[in-house]
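Minutes, project check-in
Item: structure for the 267-residue chain
Input as provided by the requester:
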Amino acid sequence: AGQSKMATVATTTLHLVTILRHYANSLIEGHQFIFQSLPRMLTVWFEFMEEAGGKTRSSRSSKDCSEMQKTVEETSEYMKQLVGVLKAYQWFTALPQIISRFNHPHLNVTAFIQEVIASVLKEYPQQALWTVATIYNSTKVERRNKARKMLRYAVRDDPPSKAMIVDNLRVFELLIKVCNTKIPKNQGNVVRMSRRFEELKRLRHTKVLIPIQSNLTAVLPANGRSQDNYNAFPSASVTILEFEDEIEVMPSKERPMKIKMMGSDGQ
């Protein structure tokens, strides 16, 4: 039974390396199967790394631990190299999945995610921020602090992007403030932004993308092949020009507010 268990561990780790390489090869060649290969490759590796550093490691034999640690090191190095091999627009397609695991217990995965986010933010800061903001503004202090440390790392050598990102994140914070504000029923169903949210109302010609599908969906190369210096967002991005002063308070139990904004396209 012991020999069988050791053989199983060795087989599993051997297959894992092969699986990751095959998924990666399909992505290096192009993006025909990107929505199958990339999410699955990430899931397989994330789950293995969680298991490798999990509580069950104390019950493994020394040989099992040695085999697993060898695979941890080999796959970690391979995934690290892959960050620079795959294009930023390829990683962008899996950004929500990657962001969802940014608090992974294994440090090698955390380092990998940090590098992917840095790569994507460097190429597509406006588009990626709408996803990154979900952890940057987390209500859990530990997650929020970790996310902000990760974001500082991502823009450490890019002052222009850093300034733009700071401006975007400030707008996100102001919008969250609107969401968290409760308007009593006795104050009616219409409020003025210029009175309650003056800083938001003062904003003009921002660089914040309006989060509509056309703004946030990467357009992959038509020929299906991986391309250098490829622009995954060829259409002019619509940004927030200004906010309308009138805010409608919806007549429901929670009384959410509906704000309106003018886009840079005039709509």
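Outcome recorded: Residues 43 and 97 are 9 Å apart (CA to CA).
No further action items on this chain.
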